[in-house]
What does this fold into?
Amino acid sequence: MSDLLEVAKKAARAGGKVAMKYFGTDVEFETKEDKTFVSVADRESEEEIRKIVSAKFPKHEIKGEEGSETGKSNIVWHVDPIDGTSNFKNNIPLSAVSIGIEKDGEFIVGVVYHPHVDELYHAEKGKGAFLNGKPIKVNSFTPNEGIIVIDSSFRGDRVPRKYKAFGGILKRCSRYRMIGCASLQLCWLARGNFVSSLSDAIHSFDFAAGAVIVREAGGIVTDTLGNELSADSKAIVASNNKENHKMVVDVTKQFYKGYKGID
It folds into this structure.
């Protein structure tokens, strides 16, 4: 295990412990400019993660959803202290800590911790993907045999775009799910629950970790046009194999050309 992975796992568990202290309580949530929610649980979890990372790697850059940015480096930590805040807010036990590490523009380490059930997913480039230390891999289903998962954010211009994309994909599959947590969408695809995953209006801290985990589990992740991911990607598709991925991207690229993630 590399030092990067070891620290990411430690930080994810610590952040999850902080978050769970507040789960199911009367903590107050604020609405941010992008209409998403935030609370003291998010902020304290991110602060705990930042402290652990900075103690070991003081020169690394940290980009956290709640604003904890430190340093300028070729190694960047993309941190979401509570991915799935709407679920968390409504006492639905589907939220996670997501920590992805980027080096020289490439995502190389991913850790996602689901604290409600004590499940820790991790992957490091070239070393496979794991759930609580046991190897995981994508399934081999076709879209008609399996399930496609989509994110649950519906607002503004993304609504008609999503309906059109989903309609096109639905002609080729028969089952959809929405779980409300982008990082777990990717992890559950990696462990064999889903055939493909589609998310838009997202940020690097939502997918950096999950992208590494999917790839190391044998899957594929690109943006919705089929291009390589970057920290600036705003809509992504992940799939269990090339054939299914091409099917989804052939649909999404019709509706996401020029998409900037702002709607």
Remarks:
- The chain has a mean pLDDT of 92.
- The helical segments are 3-22, 40-56, 85-89, 158-170, 182-190, 204-216, 242-255.
- Residues 148-255 form a domain with the D-Maltodextrin-Binding Protein; domain 2 fold (CATH 3.40.190.80).
- The chain has seven helices and 14 strands.
